[in-house]
TrEMBL record:
Protein name: Chaperone protein DnaJ
Zinc finger (CR-type) in chain: 133-215
Organism of this sequence: Tessaracoccus lubricantis
Alphabetical UniProt keywords: Chaperone, Cytoplasm, DNA replication, Metal-binding, Repeat, Stress response, Zinc, Zinc-finger
Subunit structure, interactors included: Homodimer.
Length: 390
């Protein structure tokens, strides 16, 4: 026998059925006449490749071939009647689809009930809501199960009927003549759109889709310590699928609004406090209003804090108040409240005040002070203040 079907497919003689199918799939994609337009011998190569696959994919024909017999003669070759005149029995394109894509050509009726899509909503929070947590009403425009038909898509009391075009199969087969013979292809039924059934009386509320659009309000619990960009996952709160199918998930993406007095830095809260020059020189105690003052669930004693400013404090000094910052989202405890002091030089002085300052300058030998250049750095006063005001 002149033909070596194993060589034609490019597989070993002990190749598995799966290896044979993969080899046929790869080569058929290259030599199919509809693909290899520039190859005049494509039709002959494809017929030869199909013959090899026909033999090696059939255990009986393969056994005949391995014993040195002719698998295409007699009963073994009933599926072919020679290649001189094409495929006498016709060529089923769905078999090629099965070999090339690993699926049957006939899909069968598809379900009207499908999974719904996920949904995303964005929610803005004030800083105290993000720091201490809040339960917030969130409006979601989404799809819900149709209240009239309960997802069936038909008017109450009506039932789907079998499609007369495809007899409930969901797809139809078309036969086309070609030089290869009859090529049969399957496609979704145009009458029932592949469902296999028809709804004779579609629901007037949802037009047969089984779901309607609406806006609903969810109470979303937002934990303490969240920040901009965090998404809260709510399973099964997204859009209901067609036919009243299972709902997708809802993602709530958070965005925290800037605050006029506080700035967040990780788990810390930062603020700048202006301090008179005399208070910085002599030392003082400053009463500060904390972020807790904006949270209605906070204890009254936590809404203010006393800050001890030591004498000789320089502008840009940062004092950390432990445990007065942001609760850690993962793990216990809170960050710090960092207070950066900005010492202010008086700009308006009367004669008496000016004389007192002049006397102080004489006493401190500062009447002709020398300027000392400070190096800007991330950890210095310039770095802290520029970072704050940016």
């Amino acid at each position: 026998m002149s033909k070596d079907y194993y060589a034609i497919l490019g597989v070993e003689r002990d190749a598995t059925p799966e290896s044979i199918k993969k080899a046929y799939r790869r080569r058929a994609m290259k030599v199919h006449p509809d693909v290899a337009h520039g190859d005049a011998e494509a039709a002959e190569k494809f017929k030869e490749l199909s013959e090899a696959y026909e033999v090696l994919s059939d255990p009986n024909k393969r056994a005949v071939f391995d014993r040195g017999g002719d698998p295409m003669s007699g009963a073994a070759g009933a599926g072919f009647s020679g290649f001189g005149g094409g495929f006498a029995g016709g060529f089923d394109f769905t078999n090629l689809v099965d070999a090339m894509f690993g699926q049957a050509g006939s899909r069968g009726p598809r379900s009207r009930v499908r999974q719904g899509q996920d949904a995303l909503v964005r929610v803005s929070l004030d800083l105290h809501e993000a720091v201490f947590g809040v339960t917030k009403p969130v409006k979601v425009a989404t799809a819900v199960v149709c209240p009239k038909c309960s997802g069936s898509g038909g008017e109450p009391g009506s039932e789907p009927v079998t499609c007369a075009t495809c007899n409930g199969n969901g797809d139809i087969t078309q036969i086309q003549r070609s030089f290869l013979g009859d090529i049969r292809t399957s496609q979704a039924c145009p009458t029932c759109r592949g469902y296999g059934t028809i709804i004779p009386r579609p629901c007037g509320e949802c037009s047969g889709e089984g779901r309607v659009r609406t806006t609903r309000t969810l109470q979303v619990k937002i934990p303490a310590g969240v920040s901009t960009g965090i998404r809260i996952h709510l399973e099964g709160q997204g859009e209901v699928g067609p036919g009243g199918g299972p709902a997708g998930d809802l993602y709530v993406e958070l965005s925290v609004n800037p605050h006029e007095s506080f700035r967040r830095d990780g788990d810390n809260l930062e603020m700048v406090v202006k301090l008179p020059m005399t208070a910085a020189a002599l030392g003082t105690t400053v009463s500060l209003t904390t972020l807790e003052s904006e949270w209605d669930k906070s204890d009254v004693e936590d809404r203010t804090v006393e800050l001890e400013v030591p004498s000789g404090t320089q502008s840009g000094t940062r004092i950390a108040l432990k445990g007065r910052g942001v609760p850690r989202l993962r793990g216990g405890g809170r960050g710090d409240l960092g207070v950066t002091l900005l010492v202010q030089t008086p700009t308006k002085l009367d004669d008496h005040q000016r004389e007192l300052l002049r006397q102080l300058a004489v006493a401190r030998d500062e009447t002709r002070a020398e300027a000392v250049t400070a190096k800007p750095g991330k950890g210095g006063v310039f770095g802290k203040l520029s970072e704050w005001f940016s």
